[in-house]
Amino acid sequence: MSRLRTGRLSVIDIQDVTKTHLKGQTEVHALRGVTCSINCGEFHFILGPSGSGKSSLLYLIGALDEPTSGEIIFEGRKLTSLSNAERDAYRRDDVGFIFQSFNLLNNLDAVDNTLVPYLPQGISSERRGQAVAMLQQVGLGDRLDHRPHQLSGGEQQRIAIARALLKQPKLVLADEPTGELDSETGAEVFSLLRKLCADCKTTVVVVTHDHSFVESTDRILRMKDGRLQQPDSWK
Fold it and tell me: Which residues pair with 34 in a beta bridge?
């Protein structure tokens, strides 16, 4: 990990990262030489208009995609140098993902959908109790035995959030996590994320179009046309 000018340690160093997609014969430059650091244990927002590269950057940080060039370094490890098994372990153990697409399994109820990452290892009664408690925290205590088709979009999103937070990851990556929620529920979700950040020193990175949840102490990365704006200033 590198030390920033503030004296804080960075959990993620992003070094001259580019990402280019091919659409037919046309190159689409999603990211154009992004360099920055994500501070350990802090709350970060990636802001910018549609098509600015926000989600592309988030997916690269989560090792869901690979950069065309450049490096992303997590706690001293280059993500591009990890084996497939190591990348799987990084996503499973270190990162909690919250996306607009809820990725719930239709044949499972709310509790088991929260426990999906642990199903291959078997579920202890203690872990199941933790899942129930997390669902209660996100307001789904009366929906524990409901399956996705019995739930609203907002309720499904809260299951996805509970699933991400259950393992108390080092890093939470959220792509428009409140896009399907009303303002009151959205505020509750951000309250949970901030509590996790404060209590567990979890690093949180959120992509959102809703600036109303940004607080004065948050770190801000502003994206435009695949580039980081004002790289020497977070505000």
Answer: 17
Question: Which pTM value belongs to this model?
Answer: 0.85
Dist. CA 35–CA 20, nearest whole Å: 16
- The structure tokens 């280059």 sit at 78
The kind and range of the H/E element at 229 are strand 227-229
Is-contact 78 53, C-beta < 8 A?
no
For the chain, which domains are there?
10-229 (3.40.50.300)
pLDDT in tens, 205-217: 999 888 889 999 9
For residue 121, with 0-12 CB atoms within 10 Å meaning exposed, 13-18 middle and 19 or more buried, which class applies?
Answer: exposed
Over 108-155, what HEC string results?
CCHHHHHCHHHHHHCCCHHHHHHHHHHHHHCCCCCCCCCCHHHCCHHH
Q: How far is CA 96 from CA 33, 158, 177, 183, 227, in A?
A: 26, 14, 12, 23, 25
For 18-36, write each residue's pLDDT tens digit: 999 888 889 999 999 999 9
* Helix-helix angle 153-166:125-137, to 10 degrees: 130
Please report the sign of the dihedral spanned by the C-alpha atoms of residue 60, residue 63, residue 66, residue 70.
Answer: positive
How far lies 3's CA from each of 9, 43, 97, 105, in Å? 5, 17, 26, 41
User: 159: part of which helix (H) or strand (E)?
Assistant: helix 153-166
Length of the chain: 235
